[in-house]
Amino acid sequence: MNVATSASERAQWRSKGAFLLAGVGAGFASFFRFPHILLRYGGSAFLYPYLICLVVFGVPVLTLELAIGQIFQHGIVGSMGKVHRRFRGVGYLAVLVGFLTCSFLLVAAAWSVYYLGGAFQTPLPWDDHPHFFENAIGTHSPTVSLNWPLVLALLAEWLVVFVCISRGIQSLAWACYFTIPLTLALLLLMCVRSLYLSGSPQGIRIYLTPTFTQWASLELWLQAMCQSFLSLGVGTGMMPAFGSYNQRSRDVVKWAFCIALITGLYSLVYGLTVYSVLGGMGAFDTPTPFGPELLYVVLPGAIAELPSVLNNLLALLLALALLSMGVVIGFEYSLSVQTILTDVFPNAPNILLAAVISAAGVLLGLPYCFTSGFHLFQVVNYFVPTFGITAVVGLQCIAVGYFFDATSLRQKVREKAHKGWRRAVDYVLMGCFYSINDVQFRINKLEKSRVSRPVWCTIIKYLLPATLLVLWVHGIIARLNETPSPLLPEIHPPWYVMIWGWLFLLLIPLVIIPFALRSPPPVEQEVMWHPNNDQDNLSVTDGDLDSAFNLNL
């Protein structure tokens, strides 16, 4: 099959707004984790490291993932294979991490089915029952059985995801047009209402007052790094897939900056809402035993404080928004899988690929639908994002930084970017790493001029891999020593952690190593994008990516 033809026939985003909303929707995966992590690590003690990681590390990685997908017009597997043939396993690991994350997050979204039913009751059933969530999903049930309402909600979500996948990326745009504005509007409304609760000033003070004593904890920085990546959708194979549906001339710097800016703003508002409601509930006066279900305590609790005329309607809208959010998450994470399958099986019917992906998602989600599934949820919710996403991001940076010309990639991305957006990103990053920016190096061996080392290249090649390596090794040692973690409480039976957590960690080398050791195929003539061509024209090179990106620099 001719690559040039496939690239020209590849589906494209309907509009720039659809691409932006899809990028923002990718961060909704963190919507179900953020309140729990924020509370467990002390509010402001976690908030500011999270925002630092979002700006300093998240934006460069988001730009990297969008760029390689847009340039190579492939999903994560094909793009990493073109960066270096032995790094295709990193692409498969990213898809595995993303799909496992998707499987348990859709169950978290399906929990809202109980609040959908409760929205038609007056008064709201969770208003006078503080343990409504635990009773609904059967957390303390003495027997192990399937939670059938949860199963039906999960099936309904995947059915909608199946329809969306079979219709292509344009249906994602329509899903985002409904879900994202509705969710943000409800969040803003509940934030305004929560500010007027009697105990909200105490919560706001805890949320915004900087506390630096916990910043020495490597566990905190590991979770801040992981949460920032999950908020931007990087490390899961989504963003290269999104970028592959862009035109090659699109300005990824501007859109990466916009996605990060919107994500950071709604994270701030979300955290403010959570802590205002918790302050109004008096949760800071006594120990707070909330776990991953905190979202279903805070937002419905804020709605219950509204006048009775409005709370039923808003409870209904909230439940629908959370269910719709699950559909968006399922579609976006499945899109990376569909992109890979489409690249490998270009003639396969779209409806068949959608059926395979949806069936796999249902099977992976069923174990969480048992009454004992909440313990499994806690284990997977810790291990998969914490170690999986950070491993993928670190390996991507190593691949681009040491086995590919990151400087040339950066230069070509900047050529497509508007001057104002380039300067905005440069000033933000240079403000953080001004001293590093003074290091000198050569961009072009044919020229004798020297320029300052771009900060983006420094972060991708040196700072981020080294930081992630330290945090990752620390996290592994902490788990080997069974050091208590705020996100991994004591779970009974303890073999849950031993089997499911360590089984996933074992999968990481099992996915990567076979591709790294496999002998690369003989180099063939292939059609490839020429980096100095501002149009979408293609030229033939010798197949060596380093040479392709160094031509005529």
What does this structure look like?
The structure is a single chain. The model is unreliable at 1-8, 427-453 and 522-553 (pLDDT under 50). The strands form 2 sheets. A two-stranded antiparallel ribbon has the order 1-2. The chain has a two-stranded antiparallel ribbon with strand order 3-4. Helix 6 packs antiparallel against helix 22 (495-517) and helix 16 crosses helix 17 (350-365). The protein is mainly α and 553 residues long. It has helices at residues 3-9, 16-26, 34-40, 44-72, 76-83, 88-110, 113-118, 132-137, 148-167, 169-194, 200-208, 218-232, 238-244, 252-280, 295-304, 308-344, 350-365, 373-402, 406-416, 419-432, 455-480, 495-517, 545-550, and strands spanning 440-441, 451-452, 526-529, 538-541. The chain is built from 23 helices and 4 strands. The two termini are 30 Å apart.
Output the keywords:
68% helix; 23 helices; two-stranded antiparallel ribbon; single chain; disordered N terminus; two-stranded antiparallel sheet; 553 residues; mainly alpha; disordered C terminus; 4 strands
Secondary structure tally: strands: 4
Q: Walk across the major sheet and give the strand order.
A: 1-2
Low-confidence stretches: 1-8, 427-453, 522-553
Largest β-sheet summary: 2 strands, antiparallel
Structure, briefly:
This protein is mainly alpha-helical and 553 residues long.
